[in-house]
């Protein structure tokens, strides 16, 4: 259910507020373009600057828009407060999310045992499928394979989004975790390598602007049509890199604006990207065939 190309959704803003109609339109476009799954309120959705009520509302809109389409919603419900993570995860379950995704707690730097107890506490408090999310460059913490393997034994922890850039981890984890434990890449540029090492898909930033191409690449992988996989990867690689020249999601929001799908507006402390970065994003989108 949670394999292939899933999109780490941006959160559109208008004059400082969440653009609810714009977000609904954006989610509907993603579904029409064939994305395999929707992930609202992750890092790309600027979750740290959403109020609790906004966070819940964005999840509600995503679920309502996806209802009846068969496209699953994995709600971002992580926090560096275990109690807040439980609250957000309870809301996601009540709202009808198919799963919840929880990031490694940031800033307070828990030990590996602290990470285990944090995720275990949320999983035991809320009966919903849970994905772990390891992204060391953002959180300052790195959940090790041993901890992931321990957590895989918790009944409703079903997988991980890994953005550690360590291509050995998918295989190391697969060999020891419970059977069927999902592994999704959190880093577009190395997604094909992640698949080759035993991964199941990617929760993608690039899919915000290239949902069909990203989906086609994963479909080709499932068919083992490697010529098509590499052809699409070559088209997308400059874009994967351009979208992280500056702090995400500034570049990808600009890309979405170029397509007429969302505003490039962000919330402080993030600001819109420079003209030099905008040029690289545009050039990469032309290379990918997304713009003329």
How would you describe this protein?
- Helix 2 runs parallel beside helix 3 and helix 10 runs antiparallel to helix 12 (275-288).
- Strand 5 (74-76), helix 3 (82-95) and strand 6 form a beta-alpha-beta unit.
- The model has no long low-confidence stretch (mean pLDDT 97).
- The chain has helices at residues 20-32, 52-66, 82-95, 112-125, 136-139, 145-152, 169-176, 191-196, 211-222, 226-242, 250-258, 275-288, and strands at 4-8, 13-14, 17-18, 37-39, 74-76, 99-103, 130-134, 157-162, 182-185, 201-204.
- The strands form 2 sheets. It has an 8-stranded parallel β-sheet with strand order 4-1-10-9-8-7-6-5.
- The two termini are 35 Å apart.
- The chain contains 12 helices and 10 strands.
- By secondary structure, it is an alpha/beta fold.
Encode the helix/strand succession as letters. EEEHEHEHEHEHHEHEHEHHHH
pLDDT < 50 runs, ≥5 residues: none
Q: Give the class from helix and strand content and strand pairing.
A: alpha/beta
Report how far apart the termini are: 35 Å
As a percent range, the share of helical residues equals 40-55%
| Shape estimate | globular
Strand residues, percent? 5-15%
SSE layout:
Blueprint: E1 4-8, E2 13-14, E3 17-18, H1 20-32, E4 37-39, H2 52-66, E5 74-76, H3 82-95, E6 99-103, H4 112-125, E7 130-134, H5 136-139, H6 145-152, E8 157-162, H7 169-176, E9 182-185, H8 191-196, E10 201-204, H9 211-222, H10 226-242, H11 250-258, H12 275-288
Parallel strand pairs: 1-4, 1-10, 5-6, 6-7, 7-8, 8-9, 9-10
Antiparallel strand pairs: 2-3
Helix pairs in contact: 1-2, 2-3, 3-4, 4-6, 6-7, 9-10, 10-12, 11-12
């Amino acid at each position: 259910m949670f394999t292939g190309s899933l999109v780490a959704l941006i959160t559109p803003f208008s004059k400082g507020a969440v653009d609810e109609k714009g977000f609904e339109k954006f989610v509907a476009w993603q579904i029409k373009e064939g994305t395999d799954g929707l992930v609202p309120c992750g890092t790309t959705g600027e979750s740290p600057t959403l109020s609790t009520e906004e966070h819940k509302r964005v999840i509600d809109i995503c679920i309502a828009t996806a209802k009846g389409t068969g496209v699953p919603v994995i709600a971002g419900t992580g926090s560096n407060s275990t109690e807040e993570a439980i609250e957000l995860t309870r809301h996601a379950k009540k709202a009808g999310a198919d799963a919840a995704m929880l990031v490694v707690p940031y800033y307070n730097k828990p030990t590996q045992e602290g990470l285990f107890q944090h995720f275990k506490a949320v999983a035991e408090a809320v009966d919903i499928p849970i994905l772990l999310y390891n992204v060391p460059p953002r959180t300052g913490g790195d959940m090790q394979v041993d901890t992931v393997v321990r957590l895989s034994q918790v009944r409703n922890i079903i997988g991980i989004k890994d953005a550690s850039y360590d291509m050995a981890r998918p295989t190391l984890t697969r060999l020891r975790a419970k059977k069927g434990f999902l592994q999704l890449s959190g880093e577009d540029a190395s997604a094909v390598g992640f698949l080759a090492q035993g991964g199941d898909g990617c929760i993608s930033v690039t899919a915000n602007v290239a949902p069909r191409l990203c989906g086609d690449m994963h479909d080709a992988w499932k068919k083992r049509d490697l010529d098509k996989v590499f052809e699409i990867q070559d088209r997308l690689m400059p874009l994967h890199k351009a979208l992280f020249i500056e702090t995400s999601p500034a570049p990808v929001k600009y890309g979405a604006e170029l397509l007429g799908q969302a505003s490039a507006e962000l919330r402080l402390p993030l600001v819109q990207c420079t003209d030099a970065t905008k040029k690289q994003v545009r050039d990469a989108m032309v290379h990918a065939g997304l713009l003329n």
